[in-house]
Amino acid sequence: MGIADRIILTLYTILMAIVSVMTLLCSLGVFSHSGLIHFIDQIPGNWIYAVGGVIVLLVSLRLLVTGLGMTGISTLKLSESEKGKVVVGKTALEDYIAVLSQEIYGIHHVKVIVKLYDEAINVRINASIEPGINIPETSEEIRDNVRESIKKVTGIEVKDIELFIKQIKAKEE
Questions:
Q1: Distance in angstroms (rounded) separating the CA atoms of residues 66 and 12
Q2: Residue 111: what pLDDT?
């Protein structure tokens, strides 16, 4: 779950807590039901409540999709037999590919995003490169290293590797 989803979840949880407390206080008689009914009677025709309702609906749907894990595949099955199955996590692949990429001379500050499919993966590598390093040659070396190592270690085919050089800068020690 990304930071934006966490913020949305926090705000949504606070909103639901307020609604729950108000419901509890009404049921205990702390607030009068007539005051709540008067408030609800003012909702029809008021566009502010309609916008608020649409926002709450969209946030609810977003949290539902995120909660059900429909934002993408997070594990990939490597093998399955009567003894059990072997799966690899998206984060494990991202961390491993980051290590593989940083093994190449001149590459540093690597971040990897992996998209999992049924039988293959796509990889986006965001990295910095030191000045004076030949980018096309180094890119090809990274691609070859990642493809060969992932295939050898997991048996997964790497469909596409996109390399994004975000900085040409010396590595800071």
A1: 14
A2: 95
Is the domain spanning 75-168 CATH 3.30.70.1350? The answer is: yes
Residue range 61-89, pLDDT digits in tens: 777 776 665 556 677 788 888 999 988 88
Q: Which residue has the higher pLDDT, 131 or 20?
A: 131
Closest to 62 measured CA to CA, from 127, 5, 109? 5
CA 136 to chain centroid: 30
- pLDDT attached to residue 1: 54
d(CA 50, CA 43): 8
83 vs 14, 76, 79, CA distance in Å?
Answer: 45, 18, 10
Q: Looking at per-residue confidence, does 165 or 6 come out higher?
A: 165
**50 is written with which tokens?**
């309609």
Q: Which of 72, 103, 104, 109 is nearest to 90 (CA)?
A: 72
Domain boundaries, the chain: 3-67, 75-168
In 3D space, the residue among 72, 166, 161 whose CA is nearest the CA of residue 124 turns out to be 161
